[in-house]
Amino acid sequence: MNLGTLIRKNLGRKKLRTGLTLASVAVAFVLFVILGALARAFTLGIEVAGADRLFTMHKVSFTQLLPLSYVKRVQGIDGVARVVHQTWFGAFFQDPKRQFGLFPVELPELFAVYPEYTVSDDERRALLANRQGLLVGRALAEQYGWKVGDRVPIQSTIYPQENGSYAWDLDIEAIFDGDPGADGADELQAFAHYDYVNEGRAFATDTVGWLVVKVEDPADAEMVAAAIDERFRNSPVETKTSSEEGWVAGFAAQFGNIGLMVRIVLACVFFTLLLVAGNTMAQAVRERTAEMAVLKTIGFSDGQVMWTILAESLTISLIGGALGLALGTLFVEGAGTQLAQFLPGLSVNARILLTGAGLAMLLGLVAGAVPAWQVRRMRVVDALAGL
User: Is residue 201 within 8 Å of residue 161, measured between CB atoms?
Assistant: First the structure.
C-alpha cells in the first residue's frame, strides 16, 4: 500500500469529522481573501499616489463645492505647475445601483497632471475635438462592453440638464490605460468635458468639487499646500490642502485602521483554526495508536510514520485552503462589480493568493507537528499493549 492510498483511507474513515474540518479551513480562507481584498482596496490609492500631487478641497467637507475661479488663483501660486479640477457627477449606466466615478474636467490639464493616463494620439485628438466626448478607463469599458465610437446615455444622480432630464448622451472617443501599479483600479472611472456639463446643468454652475495640484518640486509640496490654504484664509470658502497620499489615507482613516483590524481578525481566526485542526489530528492519532505501532512493526520507519500524519494534516489544510481561496475570490470579484463606485480597487491579486497558499501549508505543518512528533516517539510495546 503506497502513502497516497493510506492517507486517502485514513481521511475517509471519519467522513463527517474530515468534512467539518475541511469546511472550517475553507471558511477561514474565504474570510482571509475577503479581508485581504478589503485592506488592499483601502490602501491601494496610497501605494500609487503621486508625490508631486496635492488635493485642495472645501475646508468643511469634500462634498462642499469650490468656486471655479479658485483654479486660476491657485495656478498663480509659486511652485504650482498645473491644476485640474474634478467634480463628482454621480454617474450610472442603466443600473442606478452600480454607480461609477465620472468627473467633468479640463481634459488637457487632466493629462498633464496624470501622465500615467495614456491614450493613443488619434483618440486624444478626437476626444479634445468633441465637446460631448468621453474618456473612459479600460476596466470600466470592459465592464460594460463599451468601445470607441459608442454613444452612451449616462445618468447623473446629482445634476439634471436645464430641460430637467438626468440623462447625458456622451460619445466614447478614447479609452485610457492607468497606472500599472493600481491593477486597473484607476481605470474604473471616466472623464467628460467640464464646459459641456457646466453649460448644460440646471444648477451649481461655475463650481467644482476639488482641485488636484501638480507641484514643480515634490520637496516643496508642504510649502505649496500651506500657501494655497493661506490664500483663501478668511474667505467665504476656505480650503484644506493635503498631499494625494495624505488625502487617500485620511479617507481610509474614516473607516478606522483597516490594516490593523484585518490582522487582528485574521490572527484570531487562524489561532482558533489551529486549535481545531490540531485537535482533529491529535484525536485521529489517539484512535490509531495501535495501528501506528503495527506499521512500525512491519517495517515503516519512524520518519515514514511521522510523515503520514503530517501528510494527512497538509492534505486537509491544502484542500480546504484551495477551496476557500477559490470561493473567496469568486465572492470578491462578484462584490467588486457591485461596489466599484465605493471601492474601485476591490479585487484579489496574486499576492493574496500566494500568501493564502503559504498560510495553508504552514497551518497543515503546525497542526500536524505535535501529533506527528508524538507518533515518532511512541514505543511499539506500549502501543500494542492497548490491543
Answer: yes
